[in-house]
Amino acid sequence: MSTISDVSSLTLIAKTIFGLEELLAAELQKIGARDIEVLNRAVMFTGDKGMIYKSNLTLRTALRILVPIAKFEVSNEQSLYEGIKAINWEEYLDVTDSLAIDTVLSTDIFTHSQFISQKAKDAIVDQFREKYDKRPDVDLDRPTLRINLHIHDTTCSVALDSSGDSLHKRGYRDQTNLAPINEVLAAGLVLLTGWDCKKTLIDPMCGSGTILIEAALIAANIPPGYYRVDYGFMHWKKFLPYEESLYQTIYDAAIARIISETPNILGGELSHHVTRKAKENIKLARVEDIVSIRESDMVDFEVPEGGGIVIMNPPYGERMDKDNLEELYKSIGDTFKKKYTGFDCWLITSNMQALKFVGLRPSRKIPVFNGPLECRFVKYQMYAGTKKYIK
Length: 391
Ligand SMILES: C[S@@+](CC[C@H](N)C(=O)[O-])C[C@H]1O[C@@H](n2cnc3c(N)ncnc32)[C@H](O)[C@@H]1O
What we know:
The protein is α/β, with parallel strands linked by helices. The chain has helices spanning 21-30, 49-58, 77-85, 113-132, 183-192, 210-219, 244-256, 272-284, 322-339, 352-355, and strands at 10-15, 34-39, 42-47, 64-73, 98-106, 137-138, 145-152, 155-161, 200-203, 265-269, 291-295, 308-312, 343-349, 364-370, 373-381.
């Protein structure tokens, strides 16, 4: 099976969350990626080794950067095994290296992704064993090479995963946290609003502070990979071997573009314990000069004059009874009307029933997924001196 010949013009795939594809394409355009093509939950582009480093470090709406190496048809376990074994793995791995395989299934042929990862691993190690009587080890945490299999219907796509851990793991958060919104989604929401990075931004139900921190990173032009010390590509030895000096040059150039002039970014949170967590995260992200948080009920939150933007992720109701939830959404609408004149107020929810209780007419509704939950990201424009927006 033919593999990659021109490493200066690699086909690359950035994976993302449904609804953020166009934003990701725009981000790729900005960093100089070529041949950008929007796919479902992904964007395809071309670039060289430096582009792999740059995209991992700087893209806010990417979950992973993959380097596709092969594609073949599968109908059963045997054809999967044979397809994987037909790839010349010596181009990517030495017998002394280690590997890990992640499988994503969207097919009726197979049901267990872990089993498929095992099968694919067998095919790779058998190829080495037959030649050298030795085999690469499996290392699920820090392998030399992380391989990504995506089986869609009868097509198996094989790619090298240059990211390692998903890029939403920025490295600024204490991971033993509550149930925060995914960082990639939080950044995507901020970008979807078209915020100018000048007006005040408020999340009055900020939880652990993810939306506020991502907004601060955007406003200050801090790359999302600023805090991360490890990427998959840093372990590569044979194919596109890691060049620390190239990464350092790209990192230094990104850091040099950080700006210090930033707008007011404010948060409120009802729970004392959660407010404390949010403050810790803000410190870990080193944005405490930009973001300030108060323990406060949304209805009592002191809103500064001059307008701005609200982005919030209220509870969707999994842990609340229906009456309380309807009451909560009603109070959100009432508070927008009373206190947020001159603001564009955005909220994300999966609960369309509860959303009706906000009682305002949205000017936009953007479909987006929060994990498995289909959500709407909804905008209410709170004009001064008019009641037009009220239903
Ligand atoms: C879905 S969570 C937000 C998660 C957040 N986006 C994050 O990344 O951690 C909703 C938060 O709203 C808070 N909350 C609920 N009712 C509130 C109210 N009336 N005023 C302020 N915060 C409230 C909850 O304590 C919870 O932390």
